[in-house]
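Supplementary Text 2. Reproducibility record for the structural model of the 390-residue chain.

All settings were left at their defaults, and a single model was retained for analysis rather than an ensemble. We include the record here because the model underlies the residue-level annotations in Supplementary Table 4.
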Amino acid sequence: MPTLIGPAADGSEAVARTLLERVDELTSELVGRIRSGDHAYAETHAVPEPVLHDAVHDNLVAVLGQLAGVGGRRLRAAADVGRTKAELGVPLAALLHAYRLAGRLIWERSLAAASGDTALSLGSEVWRLIDDYSSAAADAYTGYLAERAAGAEADRRAMLDALFRGHVDTAAVSEISRILHIPRTGLFVVVHAESCTPTLDPLPGAERRLRAAYVNSLWQNEPGISIGLVSLGDPRALESALTRLRQIAAGRVGVSRPFSALIETRAAVREAELAARCVRPGTSAVVDYGSAPVPLVLAHAPEAARGLAVDILGPILDLPGEDRNTLLDTLDLWFDCGGSNTEVAQRLNYHRNTIHQRLRRIETLTGRRCSDPKAAAELYLALRAARLES
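Retained model, structure tokens:
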């Protein structure tokens, strides 16, 4: 709430009361100066005559009333004009210039009606009040812009949320396309990113990085999660976009298959989410939907995947942490090496017999032999399921 301004200095009230009685004349004079001043173009083309006249009149009455000591007045007139001019698109500089013109006019008329110490004290009060009123108007002006920006961001988030999560029809998509400046048809992908740490951005600077590659994108960010709609100019832009996403990824990042119509965005969000779940938690990688088929199948059925891991690898998962991780890491590397104990031993810098002993222990605990293709397939699926949970 604006604060009260103190009364004018002693000896100046009579001059202020005289000017207050002539406020209509002063209003016309000040409107004329504003219309012909440095910012005349902005005021003339943005502010209707009655609006400008009423704003000038109300502010002069408020300022002169304070100078005359005819009752405590608040800075409501200044706040109102600040908000009004922000709504009409008048530059802030023009708003502040109008207050300077008001101060100059009041000072000129005060000099003509006062003398000596009264003129000096009145001049000091005039410019103090002009400073207070112009500050209040500027605060209201910037406050309105902040409110409008927040409202625009809220509208943008609502539209993206409808596109990502809602059920939008063709008419709604057309409106979203128009307001967000994205084409209804073209070539798109959706990106879903989850950070390793919930408070961090999983794709810091993604929009800027993609724009540098001439790729437009829109993002919805929440703590630890970012969802982006990426508009590609042509198929070649996809690899460029993925390259930049890989450079900044700070968590699990999934990318949907390309699609051609904005109305398909919701389905693409689901694909991107599933692709992100193909990445092991706590690691950073970018995965295209369909590029990791086994993890993708498991991501589609998370409950079944958890059950599979427990049923097949349960005895290993129940081991103490270091022992459990040693066996799981060895089995993981064994699959990466195409079942070659020798290559695993070389990579880990262990003797081949050590790897053989670990694999025999895995077979004993799970009841499945690595040399049996069916059993090995079950071990692989269970291992991938366990990795997606840890």
